[in-house]
Amino acid sequence: MRKTIRPSLCFGLALLLCSWASANRRRDPLNQLEVDQLRDTAQEPDQRLKLYIKFARSRLDVIEQVRSDPKVTDRAQQTHDRLQDFLDVYDELNDNVDTFADRKSDLRKALKAVIDADTEFQARLRALKSSATAVPAETQKYDFLLNNALDTVDASAQDHRQLLAEQEQAAKHKRPTPVAPAEER
Question: By the 8 A CB rule, do 87 and 152 touch?
């Protein structure tokens, strides 16, 4: 009898661990095409950051579609999930800004696009928040996440503006590299 308990106990433990591992695994908010596009621009800050802006914007577009589609059955959960996707993509955008800034990359052009996108994202998230108050029972499922997204975009917008100002200031003080006369080359 003891021999039959061990295999079933081991099987039960293995099943429990597998279900726990799958429950803790997060879904990647990027699809394979988007991952491939990002991979192709790994060393190009302007293009890479513009892709993240595009991906974040598309996540907000999906939220608006979910909110306006009468066929959606669990609107609150769908909104929550799409907000989480937006926040994940936006966090990746911020991580990339930090990485390129740490590498001393010139981000002035890309940061202007990021700051414009920040302004757009703030407006769209605030519009979602004001429209969400009409259905308070539905809002409870994603209110915390929406507030988190707003706080993140607000703080990041301020950080992006500050980084742009720092990079503009650094560019003013950077001495141009002297070009050797043609005779010396």
Answer: yes
C-alpha to C-alpha distance for 95 and 40, rounded to whole angstroms:
17
Q: Are 90 and 96 in contact (CB under 8 A)?
A: no
Average pLDDT over residues 92-114: 95
| Whether the Cβ atoms of residue 171 and residue 108 lie closer than 8 Å to each other | yes
pTM of the model: 0.78
- 8 located within any domain: no
Task: Quote the domain boundaries for residue 93.
Answer: 28-171
Is residue 9, in this structure, part of any structural domain at all?
no
Q: Tell me the chain's radius of gyration from C-alpha atoms.
A: 23
Q: Based on the structure, what is the number of domains in the chain? A: 1
DSSP code string of 23-73? HHPPPPSS-HHHHHHHHHTTT-HHHHHHHHHHHHHHHHHHHHHHHH-TT-S
